[in-house]
Sequence to fold (596 residues):
Amino acid sequence: MKKYLYLLSISALGMFAACKKGDLDRFPQTSISPNLFFNTESDLSLYINGLLSQPDRNTYLNDQSTDNVATTAAVEIKNIMAGSANAQNITTGWSWTRLRNINYFLENYGKAQVSGAVKNHYAGLARYYRAEFYLDKMKRFSDVPWYSGTLEPTDEDLYKPRDPRTLIADSIMADLDFAYKNVRETVPTGTPGKWAVATLYARAALYEGSYRKYHSELNLAGSANAFLETAARVAGEMINAKKFSIYNTGKPEQDYAALFSSQDLTGNNEVILVNIFDLSKGKSQNVNSTVFGDYEQAPAKDLIQTYLMRDGSRFTGLPNHAQMGFVQEFQNRDPRLSQTMVYPGWVRVPDATPYIQRLNKNFTGYHQLKGYVNSTDNAILNGVDFPVYRYAEVLLTYAEALAELGTLTQSQLDQSVNLLRKRAGLPDLNLAIANANPDPVLQQQYPNVNGNAGVILEIRRERRVEFAFENMRFDDLMRWKVGKLLTKSPEGMFFAGLGKYDLSGDGIEDIILIDRTTTIPGEDQKEKNSLGVKLIYYRAGTIGTDATVYLKNGNSGGNIVTENVTRNFEEPKFYYRPIPQQQIVLNPKLKQIFGW
Fold:
């Protein structure tokens, strides 16, 4: 049975007044007097619990800024690459309200009549939240003002310039180091404890270390290894602590999917931090209508081609792999593929027969399973837990950091990446073989990888596959400095041309592609397959026509194409975002960087 933490939100305490420019000079003091409130551990707990903010199942929709999906949404990076972005119309990301509330706690928690260990636990959680806040700011803007306390309306620091990235990163690391050393291991279920802090600590260190290594515009490559060493150390300490393990019951066709469809992850030893949902307890979420692959986003062919074959060989090494249809390309693949995407023969509840992929304009034809709950029971639909942090991330952070440092051994691979491969039923990754024979497709995608290239590329493959649709890919592309991958418009299923096609894997045709100029016959005139089921008709043609399915070569076939736009990724400018122009007007000491 699930355990639940009922949190009283800070908003209910009247602490978070709406803020604009004065985010940092408006105080929670108007509602909470520090002399009256910060007295007991209960007070500290109540405030910190009110700061709890966790990713939820909408995360499964957050790869829309990456090469993992095609999307019809007006996502920011697409608009930027289209050439229409500037400081006047990019106006998000400069809110400081949350920081003010965190810093207010850090200024006042010391008043509580509790032990030093108790104070440090709650201060550690506040500093964890502050590090999380600033990590997001640094990813977006690089240099930002650092504020370690609340400000008075007359404080000059309200109008300070940006602080350098080095100060921001060092401050994030200091906050996380303090939190790691002081936050308790045992905490209420669904809230961050020591090991959740450690996961973010290792994640942040890996991000900054790899970012500095690959982004020459920062001139910080000389300090990259220190961050990578921290990532490897913290992740290694988590491994050695033996508190967590990869969820593996010996069922490679099911174990991975169970992490994203479970009604209760609180007892799953891979899940370091869980966001709990239960309709009967008043906390629910259902993303079925948006996540499936025919609302805004649909999985991209490039992602599907990244998955290995079941025997560990490369799909992209197969003859004519680029001309394989939907049924063929799902055969004998890494089992994670069919636990992430709808596969041929999948049956959608409450149907009795296999689902036939819907082919819609601007979509790829592929459908997403990760995050989708295959049920019609409302309680089940709304009661699936979300894994905020998984031990899988710790293992891949460990392996990547060591690989980038050039010190990764086969033994370390075996206690990290190969645990994930074992869960999937794949052969182990061999360090020597990988380095001796790098994947040429991955080399083309990541041309800036040098030294240990083969194993680094395979670790990147593992991250993409293991964390598909978990909001990891965009940050990975940015820190590896491969934004150019986003200039390729996502494509979908391959069709050889007009004609009939099996999409369920039983060898019997399910759909028919006809010329776009041909009228689809009425229901009583539609052709039936050998099972007596009417074929589903689509009018095929090139993009921009009145066809219902866009093929790259029109009637001659090709991949489904999803858009007809020119994407341009300007380096290094597009790895960063401008400060909204309104803020520059209010504070002229804030200067744009990297060409914005």
